[in-house]
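Protocol step 4 of 6: structure prediction from sequence.
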Amino acid sequence: MKVLKFGGTSVANADAISQLKNIVASLNSTELIIVVSALGGVTDRLEEALALASTKQEGYKDILEALEERHIELTRQLYPVKEQGGILARLKGEFNTLETLLEGSYLIGEETPRLHDLVTGYGELLSSELIAGYLVSQGLKAHWADSRQLIKTNDQFGRARVHKKETYAKLQAFAKEQKGNILLAPGFIASCDRGDTTTLGRGGSDYTAALWAAAVGAEELQIWTDVSGMYTSHPALVKQAKSIAQLSYEEAMELSHFGAKVLYPPTIWPVLEKGCPIRIKNTFAPEDAGTLIQAADNPDAKTVRGISHIQGISLLTLEGPDMVGIPGVSKRFFEALGQADVNVVLITQASSEHSICVGLMSEQLSQAKQAVKTEFEREIETGRLKELLIETELAVVALVGDNLKSHQGVSGRMFSALGKNNVNIHAIAQGGSERNISAVIAEKDVKKALNTLHETFFEVQTRQLNLFILGVGNVGARFLKQVEQQQEYLRENLRLQLRIIGLSNSRTMVFDEEGIALSDWEQRLADGQKANINGFKEQLQSLNLRNSILVDNTASEAIARQYPDFLKRNVAVVTCNKIACSSELEYYTELKGLSSRYLSPFLFETNVGAGLPIIDTLRNLIISGDKVRKIQAVLSGSLNFVFNTFQEGDSFQAIVEEAKNQALPSRIHELIYPGSM
């Protein structure tokens, strides 16, 4: 017996439902139980309609009409004409009841938790009846199962608790009675002892499927969605993210808690208790293997299995001298939050006991702040505790893996990688199980942090450098040509992947986060926006990419004076512009200091000797213990060329012009040697 659950995107339209049928038919078995969600977006629209009706706004009628038309049109697309009448009549009856409920809410101007569950549960009722009938019309032996009659809960509307013993007995009996039929049931909905419709909360359809799987002892629970499993990180933010072949139950729970939307933590508990494997599959790419979740199994012995995150986080900190060594402060703090129904995402406390810091969802910040201030009002007024410290616009990033506990140095690599990319850490937490290392960072840094960590733990072979290039004249154009020619060598031998993200000359500038193709950069730049250095800096900062490098191929003093702004933003500066390093000593010293402080390489090898490795050679001599006592040379490439080329009868002006035309491009591969003299 297998249990298959299809989410909203998997039943969003006629093509998706037809694909669902193909998947079911390909299994060639009646030993199947199918659980479906509402059509994509329907539950949200029902909630919106109820909110309008309860505030006496007639707009609910338009929503209801649009939903009815959507289901009718879907029926016409899926069913043969001669079989449409029966299902259309059933759908019409359900919508008539739904209209009555919403009209009642409109008349009394009220929305109750009981009514909310009754109305929002109609999405699953409608989709399941429609899909069950469609499977029958396609020759499959399918039978609709009413989850309200089989799954019993308490009357905690909105997030009802399941009576497992009673529910399992009913599910087992029904499956036995209908043996030989494919069972198709609505997810999300159930009923309490009085018979009122209840809902199972966020991820309720997954939970329904897990209850079925646990009750009948299924060999596997399959969650069909629109991605091919759980990924090493969010694929929309990390392009290199890949599907994870296998996870343990505990790893999957950690990842799902920290934002992996394909699975919700409550789903796992019923099947975990029974040892039933879960497989995440892609409805639109059923040939993909997906992710298998089962008892602890890490065949590749990988330390970090995934990197996840939660956005919309705020930190609330209670601190003061009265907390040190005083029993009961933590108890009062968390009791106040619990009584205010505030969910704590992350907890951290210093060993000095001087402060307690919690992370919570930002939408709960106001009630959390009020609850804690009320509890500690006297202590705050008398100065024994400080005013609450609030930090907003934050996010949590987390490394997840069963083997974190047996590997040393993981947290060091994590925080070192983030630090090198100027990602500031606001708080750190690690559970006793050591399956999770969490850090709170600024929300604006999430994409950079995820890509940095993914590169560190999953793409260690190749380092990606993001280049922002100023100046594409003689030197700049040759540099771009050199990059194009050397891409394969850099990737295979130095493990460097170069992407040109920004280009600018004195007239225009262009940016592309995915990289500017070197085959058509001239046309892209010609079609770009008007250039200015402040706009260039703002665009670079807003992209906020890891391993960002400014390459200055100009001779502009105005640009050379902007280097501090780039270094402070953790952007490396590579320059053949001589002005910054040949002006006043104080400015050069400032740039070297900023480079050291912000770990931003400042490289200028091409300032002297026409790009010969003079500075690098001197640096290596000094590192090895030698002392440079005297340098005697003509270190200007142009002067060397002039002196070696100039002969009697030659025009000095012509020789200088030729020297100008022979300028050499800068050497970007110096970046693999961080720091300089």
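Step 5 (inspection) to follow. The first helix runs from residue 14 to 27.
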